[in-house]
Structure formats: C-alpha cells, structure tokens
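Incident log entry.

Two folding requests arrived from the same account within the same minute. Monitoring flagged them as a possible duplicate submission, but the sequences differ. Recording both here for audit purposes.

Request one:
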Amino acid sequence: MNNKSIMDMARQLGLPVTEANIEDVSSMSQQQMEAEIRKLKNEIKKDPEKNIERILTALKKMPGQKAVAEERLEDARQQFAQAKEEVQKPFDKEDKLKYVQNRLTKINAELDMEPKTEPKLVKKEELKKCL
C-alpha cells in the first residue's frame, strides 16, 4: 500500500495525517493496520467532542479543497483542448511510416517464401563423438 492510499484511507476516517507521520503507518503490516483502524473507529464512536472537532476541521478545509478542485478542473480542460489540437495535426512522418510498413510486408513475404527445412536428426553415436 503506498503512502497516498494510506493518507486517503486515514482522511476518510477523519484522522489527522501528514507526510511526516505517514512513514510509521506505511511500515505496518496489513493486519496491524486493520487492527489500528478498528481501534480508531471505536475511539471515534466513543468521543463525540473529537468527532465534532473533526467535522469542524473538515468544514474549514472545504473552501480550500474547492479551490484546488476548480484549479485541477481548469488544468484538465486546458490539457483536453491541447490534446484536441494535437489530434487534428497531420502526422509528419506518415510517408516514412507507409514506406517502412510496405517494406516490412515485403520482407515478411520473402521470409514466408523460403522453403522450410526439417531439422536434421543426429544419431547417438555422432553425438557421443562430439562430446
């Protein structure tokens, strides 16, 4: 499990996670991680004040997350527009590609025309002489 997926999982549980403390988590085995998650889920259920703090913290982060999401969306739109332009451009080396494909077809045809010879069987006595 990589650090990003560990951080995402922790955030879904409402846990404060940073790059600094994620290294401890990434070295855990799957069983240790599942046990830790069960423990934290029980803790979340037991402490309503911490739950409210987590909710408030999440609410405070939302405007920033929205801005980041809008930025990423705008980047994606720009990349999409650039990709559309790139697809419309003609392929510069189309002539060379056709030439090479035709040459490959001819070479393959020549290889198929050569008579196939059966492998020559070697007798045991001849083989022993070679060794």
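Request two (distinct sequence, not a duplicate):
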Amino acid sequence: MKVGYPYKIIFLFLICLLLNCTAVIYTKVIFITNDAQFKQQVLQNKKPVLVQFSAQWCGACTNVKKLLEEIADDPIFSAVAFARVDIDQAPSLSKQNSIIGVPTFIYFENGTIKDLEIGVQNVQTFKKHVQEKLKTLFSLEHNSVQNNQQRAAYNKSLQQLLPQAQKRDELGYIQYAYMHVSTMVTNCINYYSSFF
C-alpha cells in the first residue's frame, strides 16, 4: 500500500521535527548538576575554572549565556575550563558556594576561589570584561606563544572551510540549504514509503 499525500506531509513534518530535536550544539561549557560532578569538574580540575551560577528564569543569565560559550570556544582560553550550574537544579551547590544572586561568576584555581562576581554590569562589555579578567587572574598572557599557535591553527582550519563557504555563497545560502534538506527528505520519504 502506497502512502497518501496527507501521510507524506505528516511524515515530512515528523522528519523535520526529528532533525531539529536531534541537532546538537557543541560547546565547551560543562553543565554541572550534582556535588560529585562539581568536585570532579571544578575543585579537582587541573585547569583554572570559571563557573557561572544561573537560573532559567534569570534574564541576565540568558543574555550572557551565548557570550560565555563564545569565550569558552575561543582557542586563547583553552587553558581554562568553563562550567554552568543551575541553582534550581543543584540547590546544594548554590548553598555550598553562598550564592545570593544570579548570575554569579566564580573563578576557581586549584580548587580554591580566586574571585567572585555577582551580576552583570553591562551586557555589551561583558565578553571583553570576562576575557580581561581571565587573562589577569590566570596569567594567560604568559602562554601567548601557545595561544598564537592555537590561533594560527584555528585560522588555518577556517581557511580550509572557506572554499565550501564560498560555494554556499555562490548558490545562495537558502537555496543551498533547501537543496540538501529537500534531497534528504525526499530520500527518506522514498525509503520509508516502501514499507507502507
């Protein structure tokens, strides 16, 4: 029995929903949910660690979330680990660290607190402020040769991706994306329609 038109539309919708739900955005920020994980990832970490204590209902936390992830993904700060703790999901950690407001940023080194900041003064300057704070607190400027090598490797990997990006620009990003998605969806529909 062949699949009718309404069933194909429903199937297409489910495939698109599945693709959106399974898309994973990779970030180097570790999400901590319990005491054991906090001990292992923060207190026993060989690297210095910046921990953001936040909550889903906190607007400022949401505003700086992406900026913190950008800093974590920057090769210059590869010598620092980044973590996030939701105070509603891990209330014992917020009590243990005396969190009185969110967002709170605690800078750890060798399991001890080096600095603590509560709140965000200015979202526009937040990224630059945190970058400078990390460089100052954890003496990241001493690793400038290593950072320059990492930056060069990062730029080289971007250069390798440039021809693909140029091809995408020539075709038009929307047309390029539509072409690949429509081909994939058509193949899925043809494959699964043979079972009905």
